Amino acid sequence: MRTFVVPPDAAGERIDKALAQLEPQWSRAFIQKMLSESRVFVRDRVVSKSFRPAAGDTVRVDEPTPQPIGAEPQPIPLDIRYEDDDLLVVNKPRGMVVHPAPGNPDGTLVNALLYHCGGSLSGIGGEIRPGIVHRIDKDTSGLLIVAKTDAAHRALAQQIAAHTFRREYRAVLHGHFRSPTGTIDAPIGRSDKDRKKMCVTQKNAREAVTHYEILEELGPFSYAALRLETGRTHQIRVHMAYAGHPVAGDPVYGPKNGVAELHGQCLHAGLIGFSHPADGRYIEIVSELPPYFEAFLRKLRNQFGRETYAEGQ
After folding, report:
1. Which of 16, 137, 139, 250 is catalytic?
2. Does the fold of domain 166-308 match that of domain 80-161?
3. Measured between alpha carbons, how far is residue 13 from residues 19, 65, 187, 188, 264 in Å?
4. Active site includes 137?
């Protein structure tokens, strides 16, 4: 049984939205399932999804025992940059899917983690998920943190929700920016026109904030450092496209005549920083640019020269 006390900023929200705020690792689908199964209690009474709690209300959720996801362990090599009894940090290669899904039933990061960690992985949200605290897209390379225990998972998720978990990316973007630094603060939700895509919208959206710094201008492109304040699905890709500067090679949010040679977005999760959930010490992990990214930068520098805004890589 999980217990929460409703804070003032969640008071008056519908209970499913309040729970999504109180436990960021629970999906909306999981919360709706708990409500439909009469597993959510306020003031010791079962509540429906239309219930709106008051500040200070105690919410209890009868969380089910996590069930296996059905993925098989596979001996896939992992580039592990940090590991202890509570968590590990993986440098995910481009092209690797994080979770098994239709079209990608195996060969995923989850399959590799099940083999590497065995039973030492967290299970939050109704199934034994191999500790995935946050995700990066298939064709985005870089650092991903994995929790081995539920306590570590929740502590890391709370840091993400509180914007104290540091995530920095590098990207090559189309076009030039008016200012070398800036912030895009625009809510992101699912597109009504294409349910596989996200977009900037006010409808059923969540806050999304991305900070950028332009490191170099390279012909028709810009090389940028990006810092996530929030972590929405496809956030950088959506925000950059919204700003008129989509990520080079992005087949979904970029131009139709994009950079075909990249075979996907030129985006790398290069740094994560967090307080260790067991002892509070700050840990920062850095990942170098992968070969495909370095090769594209080298080609652009040779072809167009470079104008540097700040010291880059």
Report:
1. 137
2. yes
3. 9, 27, 18, 19, 39
4. yes
